[in-house]
Amino acid sequence: MGKKLTFISILLFLSGCYTYKSIPSYENDFVVGEKYEIRIGDRPMQRVFVNSVTDSTLVVRRGRTELVVQKDMITEVKYRKVSTGNTVFGVVVGGLLALVLVGTLSWL
User: Where are the transmembrane segments (predicted)?
Assistant: First the structure.
């Protein structure tokens, strides 16, 4: 049980928290190898990984599927950014939960 708890604690401490920040519509500069959330028309937001970029199209991967998307059809773009606040909060809360769990198990 102790090894599992240590492993879970290490995972919590090494986890990073990401947020998606909006990009203004005039800045559609996509970077190959980055993750974005895009909205095509009035569809829901989709998280995609950019494989290649041309002047008018993007080749993105969503899951195991590659799609070619026209830049003109994209109505909203958000890029993925590491959130320091969320990461610190997650590590502190995760650490406290791990300590409470260890304390509870040691009393049994």
Answer: 88-107
